[in-house]
Amino acid sequence: MAGCCDTTGLTFFLTYSIFSAVLGMLQFGYNTGVINAPEKNIENFMKDVYKDRFGEDISEEFIQQLYSVAVSIFAIGGMLGGFSGGWMANRFGRKGGLLLNNVLGITGGCLMGFTKVSHSYEMLFLGRFIIGVNCGLNTSLVPMYISEIAPLNLRGGLGTVNQLAVTVGLLLSQVLGIEQILGTNDGWPILLGLAVCPAVLQLILLPVCPESPRYLLITKQWEEEARKALRRLRASSTVDEDIEEMRAEERAQQSESHISTMELICSPTLRAPLIIGIVMQLSQQFSGINAVFYYSTSLFVSSGLSEESAKFATIGIGAIMVAMTLVSIPLMDRTGRRTLHLYGLGGMFIFSIFITISFLIKEMIDWMSYLSVVSTLGFVVFFAVGPGSIPWMITAELFSQGPRPSAMAIAVLVNWMANFVVGIGFPSMKTALENYTFLPFSVFLAIFWIFTYKKVPETKNKTFEEILALFRHGNGSEDTATTRSIKSETEEIEISSRDSDNTSRPKQHNS
Questions:
Q1: For site-directed labelling of 506, which of 8, 185, 467, 488 has its Cα 20 to 30 A away?
Q2: Structure pTM?
Q3: Which stretches of the chain score pLDDT less than 70?
Q4: CATH number given to 262-473
């Protein structure tokens, strides 16, 4: 079955639908990176507001705390949005959820844009929080929608488009954030307010796109609507293979048709894929990448670069992210998810050690500040190869239609919680550990590499049904006792589901 859909190509309408959806991930990338460059301008604004209100100067320590709130409140909103993603996907559909979410994107962007006019940094916090909720919902809904409309043979490469959109958003925010453009005391509110653009554009483009055929067929049982959507996406009237794959998935998942978050957490059958999904999300955040995204400008300054050189080095990070994500798109379906993730984590581990070395000897050797820039760029290259896109994609691939929304919600919540921890904790960690700042990330990277090597299965070119079977029958890395308990648990669920459907009939004991 894995090879049966290989003739399906990338049609115009599928491309259009994916472009319309990934504007949500561009929004996420833009708002992750936008706070980095205008750090000093925002701090100056906060100082002015504080002095006008209280008639005295604010302490440096307190201004640092206020700024880290502006950075990390985005992640609190993201947690809330990410966790609501599963409910929203089932209640309004994947496309419907994305459309509604743009209301939050426009509201958050407007609040941030009018922060300076209103002379209130609380408005900035509120705007960052609301845009965080918007981005959290996007990180849940967009990968779900794309994985469900993509043909099997293109699912990996198209899943990487999520990360490409994130990196383009990041690069855009970094380029616009330089002093020559919007990184000024007057320009930074416009820089933050531009977050309304992806939301407005998606509101215009997305209504033409179809709802996810999987959602229409499996969740809503609207086969004719699903066929219509597939015919448009595939630009072909023969969609029986796609329908049959969905039907097979539906039959395999009959016992798990409506799995709530609590049922997912308590199900022994789904525990292994859930743990893998969670650890994959942690491997993305605790790799140290967000320390680079949020604080790279100040990181480069502390390694010996001038303020302006540091901003241009940060743009270099964004450009390399975009280039490497483009490189990883064809690799995703050729090399496989697990292999790329191992390469990514291994490379990041090596470069995180180099970053620490460059910090330690920068006082002794002048050119060491350039080693820290090169090491940081290398660190980012390997992030783009694996941990950048694979955790989002593999979580959507490890679960079938029933538990997928709840699984995505849990994975996204974990991702945003870890994002928040790094965002709020990194400045204190930098003060406490000084030159050894990246050492904890090196330790985490080693742990995640070992976990991926031992526990994560390859999902390349496998149907959702085949992936579930890996956990049902053991994937080589699980012991037979676990496998046996998973199989018996699955059988019990299926038997109890049949019994509940046939409560009026007596049980048959004959074979």
A1: 488
A2: 0.81
A3: 1-8, 253-258, 473-511
A4: 1.20.1250.20
